[in-house]
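Memo to structure team: turn this sequence into structure tokens by end of day. - J.P.
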Amino acid sequence: MTRPENHTVHILNGPNLNLLGKREPGIYGARTLADIETDSIALGRDLGLEVALFQSNHEGGIVDQIQAAREVAAGLIINPAAYTHTSVAILDALNMFDGPVIEVHISQVHKRESFRHHSYVSLRADAVIAGCGTQGYMLALRHMAELLKTA
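Reply from structure team:
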């Protein structure tokens, strides 16, 4: 399958990210997923990208979104959250996606528990951004815009 000739980017978020702003603000900050969505859509517009966001606490929901993105998205930005460290299913779905994939983590996972140091998603990701807070999504969008220019 060839990827779409457009500049649509899907931002996929995994479990518990719906609680950003409430969940462990010392680690994840005070910004909410709605804040990230607003900022991402606005920056995407400035970069000439159409941005669609999705969040699920369920592994299968994320896999379904990756599979659906094959038909409509030029690139994926994914914060798989806890599934980063456990999900071969998400990795397999990402391996079927033809466009660029950027992995994002709000916290600096390599300064946290050792089980967080391994990422299945990194095996497919074209770039990984970690430890930049929610600003990591904006960095990922800027990098995605560059990747799509050269694709």
